[in-house]
Design brief:
330 residues, DNA polymerase, domain 1, 5 strands, hpI Integrase, Chain A
Length: 330
């Protein structure tokens, strides 16, 4: 249940809890909250546990510079740390940082690993239910792993062949493809969930976790079939905040372990993971000639430059350019 926000007491005394409250008041996602808290804690530890209220631009510059020069972090990592500290000072402490002068990370962006279609289908074929269906959605719809695991039954629209991704990265909502070849498998999965939900109700459970705002807006939604997770956990567990016994969704680590095992047993020689299916989805679309803006929309990227990396992947793929030694003699 690592996507359920930890409780914050009213009028919190601890600084980190005060920061959490500000983040929630600003409407940021829980993923953003966890990321910002992580970087603020690292910032505080870097400066020997000094209180952020006693620090400013100079300390931020020193921290970001250390990430680039000594930690040799990626450009995107330094950018996330910067965003967290800007939020800390400007939104929470109300101390604008002004223009910052620090060493920028220069590590070149790595090309993402991509499965061929044959590799992707072979790896998926080595998985068993429900991990096979999860991986099929990662590859067929371009979902991130947590986006797939957080799907509710109501998020699937078989009529329009679309999946609605709610509370994705950056709190964005988007639609993506619902592969036609997965219709029957998904319908079977929904029937399994309906039977499991009916059993839970008989046992005195059946209430699913909802974000606070939705729980207040739709008071009966937590017991409805439509709001149940598409990939429910095998066990009932206590909500870490309220103590209510609920069936949450399948844990990400379970899928990651099984996918890693399938990759190894398939003989795939390069590094791969659940996220490689998403890279492969995007690469297939670009190879097929779909507009890069459409691919950006399906993936939920804010910046088109993030999506354009797949143009480079396609151009650099073996076979795209003929080697001089492979050309026929003139």
């Amino acid at each position: 249940m690592d996507d359920i926000r930890i409780p914050v007491p009213p009028n919190p005394a601890r600084f980190i809890n005060q920061l959490r409250q500000t983040i929630r008041n600003q409407g940021l996602s829980y993923e953003s909250e966890k990321t910002y808290i992580h970087w603020v804690k690292r910032f505080i530890r870097f400066h020997q546990l000094r209180h952020p209220g006693d620090m400013g631009a100079a300390e931020v510059e020193a921290f970001l510079g250390d990430l680039a020069e000594n930690k040799r972090c990626a450009v995107a990592t330094q950018r996330v740390a910067l965003n967290a500290l800007v939020f800390l000072f400007q939104r929470h402490l109300e101390k604008p940082l002004g223009d910052l002068n620090f060493s920028y990370a220069r590590r070149a962006q790595r090309m993402p690993t991509v499965f061929t279609h044959q590799e992707a289908t072979a790896i998926i074929g080595k998985l068993v239910h429900p991990h096979r269906l999860v991986a099929s959605l990662l590859y067929g719809s371009g979902l991130r792993l947590n986006e797939a695991l957080r799907l509710r039954i109501k998020d699937l629209d078989f009529g329009t062949q679309q999946i609605t991704v709610r509370d994705g990265k950056g709190s964005n909502e988007r639609t993506t493809l619902l592969p036609q070849t997965l219709h029957h498998t998904l319908e079977d999965q929904i029937r399994r969930v309906e039977k499991l939900h009916a059993y839970d109700i008989e046992c005195g459970y059946g209430e699913v976790w909802l974000p606070d705002a939705l729980e207040r807006k739709y008071s009966d939604a937590a017991m409805s079939t439509a709001w149940q997770f598409l990939f429910p956990s095998a066990n009932i567990a206590a909500d870490p905040v309220t103590g209510v016994l609920r069936r949450h969704h399948l844990h990400a680590s379970s899928v990651q372990r099984n996918v890693a095992r399938a990759i190894r047993s398939s003989g795939f020689k390069r590094r791969g993971s659940c996220h490689t299916f998403r890279h492969s989805f995007a690469t297939r679309l670009v190879e097929t000639g779909y507009d890069i803006k459409l691919v950006q929309s399906l993936l939920g990227h804010r910046d088109i430059r993030t999506t354009e990396i797949y143009l480079h992947v396609v151009r650099n793929r073996a076979g795209a350019i003929a080697s001089p030694v492979d050309r026929p003699a003139s």
